[in-house]
Protein 1
Amino acid sequence: MEHVYDLIIIGGGPAGISASIFAARQKLDFLVISKNFGGLANFIPDIETYLGYHYVSGYELVKKFKEHV
């Protein structure tokens, strides 16, 4: 039997994580396809002016994403 999702999210970077949080809030049946959680943000040493942060490392930002999810 084939499973039909309401939403399929391609990518586990910041946009994919945000999309999955909103999908969960709407109680959608969704699937996230990604090689890793956080995407390329994991490998960025310094991120300046990300929404809600003046300065954060990519590793710390992904850690915050995991806490939120």
Note: The chain has two helices and four strands.
Protein 2
Amino acid sequence: MKPPVYILTELGCEKRCPKCGEYWPADGTFFGLRLSGLKAGLLRGWCRACELEYKRAWRAGTVG
């Protein structure tokens, strides 16, 4: 069984990043916003840290 995507804590609503598995506050500080398409305005899937890590690896040519 998969862990829940959103949980409610004393800090408020938190979202799980599927890449790192950590829960972060569900806001634009920790998750980017989708800018176009049908899901525009919703939070992106990966947290900002995982997206940055992936982009750096892709630029370095280590992602295949």
Note: The helical segments are 48-60.
Protein 3
Amino acid sequence: MIEQAVPALLLAATGVTSVVGNRIDPLVIPQADPGKKPQMPRLVYQVITRERSKDRCGTVDLVRTSMQIDAYGKTYAQAKAAAAACVAALLDYRGTVSGVTIKDVALSAEIDLMDPEPGLFRVSNTFEIWHTPR
């Protein structure tokens, strides 16, 4: 599954782990112990859409997944550094990770945001990933 392949790819990239360590989470930032805040910076990923292609013979063994990866930091510089490391690891990647063959990765959107309630900066990137369905 692409949800396992992308985090594995990010964790294998020293540029990513030097910034976020192993703090790469699905969907949401995990709750910290009471009285503590979650460690930053970190990446949070989620699948936005998944499209399967068809031709005249039926469904093609190729999927396009839109995946949003948010980089969070206590400062704007932390969030930007985590986002830049993520982009460097994924952009134009081709190869096999966790049994998934990734044909191409493109960056389709970049947005800088501020989450005032927890006091975090966020850089949200959306990637278009062409891959095998496994």
Note: Helices lie at 2-11, 14-20, 76-90.
